[in-house]
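Standup notes
- HV: blocked on the assembly model, inputs below
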Amino acid sequence: MPMPDNVDATTPKFLRDKYAIVGVGETDYTRGSTQTTRAKSTRAMATHAVKAAMADAGLKASDIDGMLSYQSNDSVFSPFVAGDLGIRLNFYMDVFGGGSSTEALIGIAIGVIEAGMCKTVVIFRSMNGFSQVRIGGTGARAAAPVSGDMLHSRSYGWQSAGQMFAPSFMRHMYDYGTTAEQVAAVRVAHSHHASNNPKALYKKRVTVEDVVTSRMICKPLHLLDCCVETDNANAIIVTSAERARDLQHHPVLIRGVVGRCCKPRVDMHYQTGPISTVAGHYAKEILWPNAGVGPEDVDLTGSYDAFTFTTMLQLEDYGFCKKGEGGAYVSDGTIKLGGKRPNNTSGGHLCEGYTHGIAMVIENVRQLRHDADDSCPIGPDGKRRHTYDYREGGCRQVKDAEVSANMGWAMPGTGSALVMRRG
Amino acid sequence: MNTSIIDETTGRYLPIQYPEEMPFWKAAQQRRLVLQRCDDCRKVLYPIGPTCPHCGSNKFTWSEMSGRGVVHNFVVYHKPWVPYYRDRVPYALVQVQIEEGPRLTTNLHGVSVSDVRIGMEVEATWEELTPGVTLLQFKPRGGK
Ligand SMILES: [Zn+2]
């Protein structure tokens, strides 16, 4: 949708449109990068992804002087990746975190450039999420010592992400009458999108029936309510809108960011406040005023889908529908390609691959460039001729996409968000 | 203090017992539920902590709870992560809102997982994990 007329797009307070994403890149989404003849390290994958993002932007090593990454004690640090690529850094930081990191780090990148600490920042996430540290709770993560808020949970057999988050879904069903079938529609939509994404690990379209008859993992969560685990690295490059104008692609401008906004008590989410409300309830009070747009202005969304219901809860609490109506919103066709506001057009973490949120931002950057990497034919100018035919194996470009919103999720109590627009 | 991984004898994780939590664990061994009640605002704090998040006071008294509550929420686990649960799935995890206010997360004993409901009236029961660790659990009120 076009930007509303009555918005002051230059308000310096919010730095609206002053910074841009100019490059994106990733490795293939694989399972078992360390099970092939030679293990792929997180360092090798990160270097590949950053190099791809630089090539995408048309930037040389000497153009990059900032680097940010996030990880959970499972990945390479920035200086190694910079060293491999001949990048001399004026700023770097590697932070702890998962699904609420990408949007937050974009905000930090804006801050450090604004502060004059560096000029152009690469953000990456590199993870062997299938072969090494599996988020599902098996392998190395399951053997970690217990501490903090796990103190009173692990003895009760409560430890994986699915187990930790599922209570939000259960209580939402109780509070609002949401059904497993409604929430399964998220998997259905994302699987349709993935079928038009050559990069996606799971390209097969599924039905609501497939989801609700799949094995129960943690009632009310079925196997197909849960995302895929993969090995991959992804990178994005942030710089000023001014520099963006000289680069390869149509710039994608950053309207507003929220970083790791929290509910009143995050460590014990289930002990305080309504369980069926998530951090977006608070984050939306920062996101929309800072971005100068509202949910109604957004053409497509990227909502963290480690599980089907995390997408539903976030879309609801960021105000894309009324509180309690998330089940209807995700199952009435709105979030599918061809619908009013498609969500996770790449197939997301449920189907494309698991990246702790960064891939959903990359997808929306490509969407706002009008350059989704689907199977549509490429013209003589090197640009895709999108057909907007969303049948299986076809197009996944959202027509005339102008404004997008991304919603990252660390846990029910913590989230980050980002609004971007086509420059 | 046990900071290690899965306990070999029981096949499950044992809770770490930090010094500031010892009144809770010692009472548990006597099958009594005690939590911190703020001396200033009189609210009961949970999780166990150094200050009252309601009023900022750091004066509190370990106080006996009724042990009675209502199931506020639950989920049912079908996948075991540690040896202990291998032949015990599916098992329920509940958030019980006790009469004094806080919600405590435990398993629910004495009822089939298919009968667990939000709103069920429950009371504290105790599970001895090791001679040094007794774990709070809940069961339907009046049940076994
Ligand atoms: Zn108090």
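- HV (later): unblocked. The first strand of chain B starts at residue 34 and ends at 38. Chain B has a mean pLDDT of 91.
- Next: hand off to the docking folks.
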